[in-house]
Amino acid sequence: MKELIQKFYRLFPNTIHKEKNYYTFFDQGSLYYFYEIEEDTNLSFAYSISIYYPQFYSFVRNVNQMIITRDSNHSYVLLRDKGISFTQFLSYPIFHHYITLKWKELWIKRCDSILFNYPNIKGNSLMIDESIDYYIGLLELSISIIGNHSKNYYSSYLGHIQFDKNEYYNPFNVKEDVCERDFGEYLKYLFLVGNYSKQELSLLIKENSSFYQYQLVLARVLYPNYYFDLVDQILYQHYDDSILKNIIERVMEFQDYVLFLQEEFSKYEEIKKIVF
Question: Is 18:35 a contact under the CB 8 Å cutoff?
Fold first, then answer.
């Protein structure tokens, strides 16, 4: 990869690190992300986001002044991190575009897939065996919380595929969705990293009470995508099941967190109550 980067971009990194689905390296103080892209990669969307929102990583043109670099039947793109740190949560609108909410259909499909593969999932890990039924229950609860919202049209916003403050401005880490997705994922992220206080949460919810539909935000917080993503890593990428330990050990704390959010949300709109 180093030779490829030198050849097409005239950059000369000392070391290159393999991350999830990309490579990272530093050159002259700037952080770069080097992706191999597939045909189904939504490149045009990512590129338009990088142009429209100046905070997001920029695409680097190669020596041929092209965005896409092709070599040996492979296609690549290079992004440069502009060094802007995540400091405050914001919702980014996609103007003059409306979408229907698809969470319920997608979550039902995922739940059906998990239940279909349940016999094959069980027996691979004691930690999974002892926890999966609880998280299937959370998934089913999140589906029921959505109710009839799926029938409505909503203004379109950017939603992070995986909420991570270190990749908050990565245009490959966003998709089109309703604004409640990102706010719900942000609240869930605060819990998962253990970086929250109830006083600050209360203020945050109050400040945004006229903007978000909190019934949808609650459903998003409940949706246990973080758990099933880790289960997939254990089953199919051979990660050690210890990656689940921190989540499973905090189940009671999570339930307290959700009930606190529910209480705060209900101050501003009627919320479908949940009981653990």
Answer: no
Contact 80, 31 (CB under 8 A): yes
pLDDT means over runs of 10, the chain (276 residues):
92 90 92 88 90 95 95 94 90 84 93 96 95 97 82 83 91 93 96 94 94 94 96 93 95 97 95 88
3-state secondary structure (DSSP) of residue 152: coil
Q: Which amino acid is at 60?
A: V
Distances (CA, A) of 273 to 37, 207, 261, 270: 43, 22, 11, 9
**Cβ contacts of residue 100 below 8 Å, gap of 6+?**
150, 151, 152, 153, 154
Alpha-carbon gap, residue 209 to 81, rounded angstroms: 33
pLDDT of residue 19: 85
Measured CA to CA, the distance from residue 232 to residue 48 in angstroms comes to: 31
Q: Where does residue 202 rank: exposed (0-12), middle (13-18), buried (19+ CB within 10 A)?
A: middle
State pTM to two decimals: 0.90
Are the beta carbons of 4 and 36 closer than 8 angstroms? no
Q: Is 87 helix (H, G, I), strand (E, B) or coil?
A: coil
Cα torsion 93, 98, 102, 104: sign? positive
For the chain, list the domains and their CATH numbers: 2-80 (3.30.200.20), 93-265 (no CATH)
